[in-house]
Amino acid sequence: MTAVPDLAAAERRVRESFARQAFMATVGAQVTAVRAGEVEIDLPFAPGNTQQHGFVHGGLVASIADSACGYAALTLMPADAAVLSVEFKINFLSPAKGERLRAIGRVVRAGRKLFVCAGDVLARQGGVEKPVALVTATMIVAETTSGLRD
Amino acid sequence: MTAVPDLAAAERRVRESFARQAFMATVGAQVTAVRAGEVEIDLPFAPGNTQQHGFVHGGLVASIADSACGYAALTLMPADAAVLSVEFKINFLSPAKGERLRAIGRVVRAGRKLFVCAGDVLARQGGVEKPVALVTATMIVAETTSGLRD
Amino acid sequence: MTAVPDLAAAERRVRESFARQAFMATVGAQVTAVRAGEVEIDLPFAPGNTQQHGFVHGGLVASIADSACGYAALTLMPADAAVLSVEFKINFLSPAKGERLRAIGRVVRAGRKLFVCAGDVLARQGGVEKPVALVTATMIVAETTSGLRD
Amino acid sequence: MTAVPDLAAAERRVRESFARQAFMATVGAQVTAVRAGEVEIDLPFAPGNTQQHGFVHGGLVASIADSACGYAALTLMPADAAVLSVEFKINFLSPAKGERLRAIGRVVRAGRKLFVCAGDVLARQGGVEKPVALVTATMIVAETTSGLRD
Fold first, then answer.
1. Where are the alpha helices (H) located in C1-147, listed in sequence order?
2. B65 neighbourhood in chain A, CB within 8 Å
3. Does D80 touch chain A (CB under 8 A)?
4. What was the pLDDT predicted at D33?
5. Does residue C59 sit within a domain?
6. Which of D14, D27, D52, D135 best probes binding to C when mutated, by most C CB atoms within 10 angstroms?
């Protein structure tokens, strides 16, 4: 029997783990929504986040999508699990410019060991959002022998 | 007729463009080698670069590979071109821990418009290097109408 | 000025080009729907289409998704264009078994030169459909100098 | 203690499993080499294998690379295991034309559960080989509860 997921506990867990991702603090990213199987991360445009043309660096666009997908998976993982990225792919749709970026990660398939996730990154400028990138990712429940916890 | 590539000019171009990638400075990354169709980027382990388990964040591992692949392509692009990432995929091979990471980006196929690149990221610890990630990427010569230059 | 797309012409074009994909006939695939920016392809389960465990071969699942994505892009391309695949990635969600597979390819971003597409493959069994795979793909308008036409 | 792999047994196992991939017979593909962690598959050019411009269909190029990667992983898996594809990505380097295609799949990282593989597909024409595609893939050791065997 599968327990009804405790969303409040899942949100606490995601926020506590995210708070330990020092890299997300370095770039100013924040978790803005946690739902069962779905997490959103917000990144303000900042001069220190750019590539050579002044857009947000593609790797950083990928980073917030990777975190959003990983934490979306974590909301559905057992309490003693930790989440690790196996792989992801990103297709860029338009340059990442604007006031802020929003990454939404969603679980597409939840397995016992592997989770397949999909993510979107949008750029907000003057109240309008525009798609910036499309991501697919595989997340894994870390081996309990790894000693990792989330 | 294709001119013999001027490697000194290509290296200058890569280093000048990289110097404008503020995000690379934010994380402490540096270009350590520029060859025709191949670029290396070095990232020191720093507390601000980590994910929740203390490894370098997977998105940042991808970021230095993306930059290395993009600049590898730029070494073979016409003088009035700018490089943009179309897509990339990363497979993680082992947790990114150690003293520093080294990303090597290489051009696998140079077209007029599109470049296919492959990248490796290695982690160095105590004089030993270990594979951390495998990347494939597509880079595009930006439209001249974009006004972008590298 | 962009002409309003002529959907009847787009459908004819897709069906004529698809009819020249001998490989699709080899495996028994058919185009079942053509909309602006979206194409569906149907594949019956056939003993000659399987991998070693009796499921439809993953490469064939990818093949119908690749064709669906490519033809979705073609519906939005200029009349003198031809479509070629630049890259695609597929994540498998469950074994491809059942009576038939349905691949849906959709254009996510239509550029002048590049199209980003997303695809889903579903397996139908006893009136129920189940997700089998998730695809993202890049399609390119072939150089007019290539002599290719669709 | 890891036993020295029995290459003759691994080759027999790969060839027997491959013989059950009816789809590979449909397209005329054959295993031409089995080494520890590396497998080659050969595909003759055949009219029934083409896309609309007369090249080998991109999905079929991907199919032989997927099989080569999967069987490369199988050479290193325990005797009671079965191999399944988790995901793969393919970048196309040039149109697949010529007399035959050769796919080489290699294990890049062998884990207990997951294998990361890389593949190349080459086209042979008049004694010359040309790169056609670049693949990265994740393979999984199927759950023993799945009842699958290779």
1. 7-19, 22-27, 58-74
2. 59
3. no
4. 98
5. yes
6. D52
- pLDDT, one tens digit per residue, over D23-54 is 999 999 999 999 999 999 999 999 999 999 99
Residues in D touching C53 (Cβ below 8 Å): 82, 148
The string of pLDDT tens digits covering residues C114-145 is: 999 999 999 999 999 999 999 999 999 998 78
- Tell me the shortest Cα–Cα distance from B149 to chain D, in angstroms: 26
CA C61/CA C103 separation, integer angstroms: 8
Phi, psi angle pair for C2, to nearest 5°: -90, 130
Residue partners of D88: CB distance under 8 A and separation at least 6: C58, C62, C89, C90, D62, D65, D66, D69, D135, D136, D137, D138
B 99-128 → C contacts, CB under 8 A: 112-114
Q: What is the pLDDT of residues C87-110, one digit of tens each?
A: 999 999 999 999 999 999 999 999
Whether residue B52 lies within 8 A of chain A, CB to CB, comes out as yes
The CATH number linked to A24 is 3.10.129.10
| Partner-chain residue, chosen from B112, B138, B143, that has the shortest CB–CB distance to C86 | B138
With 0-12 / 13-18 / 19 or more C-beta atoms within 10 angstroms meaning exposed / middle / buried, residue D32 is middle
Residue B100 lies in a domain: yes
Q: Which residues of B touch A45 (CB under 8 A)?
A: none
> Per-residue pLDDT for B3 more than 90?
no
**Residue D100's closest CA among D74, D78, D129, D79?**
D129
Please, which pLDDT band fits residue C56 given cuts at 50, 70 and 90?
very high
ipTM exceeding 0.90, yes/no = yes
Helices (H), B28-118: 58-74
A106-150 residue pLDDT tens: 999 999 999 999 999 999 999 999 999 999 999 999 987 888 989
Do residue D91 and residue B136 have CB atoms under 8 angstroms apart? yes
By the 8 A CB rule, do A71 and A18 touch?
yes
Which member of B20, B24, B57 has the closest CB to residue A21? B57
CA distance B41 to chain A (A): 14
How far does A139 lie from chain D, in Å, by closest CA?
11
Residue B1, burial from CB neighbour count under 10 angstroms (0-12, 13-18, 19+):
exposed
Task: Supply the range of the domain harboring residue A139.
Answer: 7-146
D131 contact residues in B (CB cutoff 8 A):
108-109
- Count structural domains, chain A: 1
CA–CA separation, A125 vs D88, rounded Å? 35
Q: Is residue B2 part of a domain?
A: no
Which tokens in the block code for residue D46? Answer: 């055949």
Predicted confidence at residue A144, as pLDDT, reads 76
Of B91, B94, B109, the CB nearest to D93: B109
Please check whether residue B47 lies inside any domain of the structure.
Answer: yes
Q: Of D56, D62, A62, B141, which is closest to residue C113 (Cα–Cα)?
A: B141
Interface test with chain D among C57, C121, C134, C135, by most D beta carbons within 10 Å: C57
Q: Is the pLDDT of residue D64 over 60?
A: yes
Helix (H, G, I), strand (E, B) or coil at D143: coil
Whether B138 and chain C come into contact, CB under 8 Å, resolves to yes
